[in-house]
Specification:
Two copies of one chain form a homodimer.
Chain A (H helix, E strand, L loop, with lengths): L6 H20 L10 H8 L13 H13 L3 H8 L5 H18 L1 H10 L5 H23 L9 H24 L5 H23 L4
Chain A binds a DNA duplex through helix 1 and helix 2.
Organism (chains A, B): Streptomyces ziwulingensis
Keywords (chains A, B): DNA-binding
Protein name (chains A, B): TetR family transcriptional regulator
DNA sequence: TCTCCGGGAGAACAGTTGTTAACTGCATGG
DNA sequence: CCATGCAGTTAACAACTGTTCTCCCGGAGA
């Protein structure tokens, strides 16, 4: 798309990314509201003042991290919910997909779970907005399902929100089980599948 | 039960409670991992070193707060889930009960939601333990329901966990809507009721 | 080739933090 | 009534924090 950046801007974006990466690593053992600006720059190996060239504050950095963690996830959502297979297979695939994502980006998942109700307002709002968009996308996808005939918009959004909450909940469970024996991860996958199955059943009889 | 405490121990417990209260107030705008010991003692009007007479660290204080916020909630759980009325009435009553609790103890609810996935391990574990106990209690209550015939223990615990998660989720929503117009709170109550109804339906057809 | 711009470095600032030590006053148990 | 134990105080410690100002240097545009 855009032609190659100049050496100048490329270097800038590189340190910016280094700051984001270092912050994300530090946030595995603390919350954003206790993350110090100097702490981050020290981890990158850069002067404290350099931080201001990229972010106004650590809260600002947090908002950028939300974008990084959730922004690129939208395409995945749509394909997951789309009703192209039988319910049980779709559930299994969704749980697998979540497990894979947690294994691939554990720090991102931890960050979102931690800061969703965390102590930094702008970050909470950024996460709430992203999750809200997720819910709307899921609703749009659900609306295309033939089983959704007769559902009003409120019901669809309720169900979509339930799915999004469930996604985060199981992601968090997978995160806790990351360094546990594989048997534990299987247990989590089984539990998540059962929950989704129950929701699926409730969905099927909603209009009775 | 226990005869009246001496003047000495009574005063100790009073400052201890003052520390807990001050910390809880401070935690409305930050997370536990950034809460300073001096910050708390300053708010109480007591010397920093006095803190050590009551807690080893702020993490320790956090665990005590978990006890305070969740420990006295167990009786409420059992009565809420008990199947003494029709489903819709029970749902309405449960949602009302949650709304009332959030309105009465908003700081406690915020603390639990924030620190459940927060940056302080011992506190996370304390919350996980308490919520686990909740789930077990709900399961025991569900097991007494005639509709639970044929459910194995794993299914019951799955459903119980779903209810507990749902409880926290709606509590968090009520918290966000605390200073919003009452219409917003009604909307949250309506949403929570719909979610519970869907789960209830799925529960009714689980064994098909 | 020269000038300019901006990412980054360096030093210094006033405050803050957790933790230690030695103390004071007073309720308590013998 | 007196000695003891303990909640709370005072003072000091080195280490750390966010922020400002001044400077440097090398890529970019003319």
């Amino acid at each position: 798309m855009s032609h190659t950046l100049g050496v100048r801007q490329a270097q800038k974006q590189r340190t910016r990314q280094a700051l984001l990466d270092a912050a994300l690593a530090l946030l595995e053992e603390q919350s954003l509201s206790s993350l110090g600006l100097r702490e981050v720059t020290r981890a990158v190996g850069v002067a404290p003042t350099a931080f201001y060239r990229h972010f106004h504050s650590t809260a600002d950095l947090g908002v950028a991290l939300v974008e990084e963690a959730l922004g690129s996830l939208h395409p995945m959502i749509r394909t997951t919910v789309s009703p192209e297979q039988h319910s049980d297979e779709r559930i299994a695939r969704a749980v697998e997909l979540i497990a894979g994502h947690v294994a691939a980006h554990p720090a991102h998942v931890r960050f979102i779970a931690r800061e969703r109700h965390g102590g930094v307002q702008p970050v909470r709002e950024a996460i709430r907005d992203q999750l809200g968009r997720f819910a709307e996308e899921v609703r749009d996808e659900l609306a295309g399902d033939p089983g959704a005939a007769g559902w009003d918009d409120g019901d669809l959004l309720m169900l979509a929100g339930l799915y999004v909450d469930q996604m985060l909940s199981t992601a968090s469970l997978f995160l806790e089980a990351l360094n546990a024996p594989e048997r534990e991860r299987r247990r989590v996958a089984e539990l998540a599948a059962r929950r989704l199955r129950l929701i699926s059943i409730g969905r099927g009889h909603w209009l009775d």
